[in-house]
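Annotated sample (chain length 406).
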Amino acid sequence: MSKQHIVIIGGGAAGFFAALSAKKHHPTAQVSILEKSSKLLAKVKVSGGGRCNVTHACFDNKQLSTYYPRGENYLKKAFEQFNAQSTIDWFAERGIRMKTYPDGCLFPESNDSQTIIDCFLSEAKKLGVHIWMNQGVKKIEVLPHGFKLHSDQKIVDATRVIVTTGGQPKRSNFAWLEELGHDIVEPLPSLFTFNMPENPVRELMGTVVEKASVRVEGTKLLGQGPLLITHWGMSGPAVLLLSAWGARILAEKTYHFHVLVNWLNDKKEVDLRADIEHTAQLHGAKKVQNLNPFPITNRLWHFLLTKADIPSEIRWHELGKKNTNKLVNILLNDRYEVKGKTTFKEEFVTAGGVAMTNIDIRNMESKRVPGLHFAGEILDIDGVTGGFNFQAAWTTGYIAGKNCLD
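Output written by the structure step:
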């Protein structure tokens, strides 16, 4: 081969970042992206409700790595090469500034994911990155000094290959990589919401509690943060955190389990009882249903009173021990049955993939096939919601592109 050819398989977030990094660090090499579909950067387009949560405002590499249920120790080293600040700087150098929200999420100031897509496409064009659409790779043939990629429509010669095909829901989708000797960690959904069929709580769809805690009964799994009630059950960061950290445990339960909700987040029983007593002293003559002293909506308050079987006409000074116990229990340990999950196809995040023990984190190169590199969600790396999965894509893509040629 007269010219070194770096081929990236997959035209998503990690794929584009790997391609741009490869071309920047190896300007004389030909860099090509093979994308199996007719769409580029599909996940970037829909992420964050179409706004693209680019990264998270966490600038300590060790702390940043703790947001990854799988891959923490590997990313701790990877972030030494490219981290959240690196991401912000990279986009700023290309005229795209970020806005940081109170929860630490960073979005482009335009609040439009198309800004990120346009940036990548513009950079690729400027640097001369070749993009081939509708080219799904079926097989990688390893040669003495490179590779032959067998795609849908052609055979492509490559000096180095970077695989960035994203998360795959089925084990069979990894067969072509297993054939090369890679270990595959069983893929499972990582970010999903909890379905609660027939449960009357669904009538409160749209209700948000800004600070709640959700525990999976019988485990140590805990999720804290905003909780959203939907027409199918419960969602929001508190639930998504649980689904990420508990991906394998909940899969083993076939997504049938019980959760205990503390609607007051980390409020302790002794403090809640003191609050109830204080309210009874100050507003004893008022009906309980007409005075909601807690940071939850009145709709939810009335729902919980009914669920706890507390009489609608009872006044605060009439609560008594029995009703007080009911109120404490419903606010701090409200129990719900979960039967099933809902994943969002476009933003599907996978736990599992190519085992990190097969990868040299310094250059993202396969330990099984020299010259073959990996980046993004194809790896057994996944983060919680909040920009962390994109950060892993930028980081691993950058490292793979930079270090793919000796």
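Annotation: The chain has two domains: 5-189+345-403, 192-342.
Annotation: Residues 187 and 352 are 4 Å apart (CA to CA).
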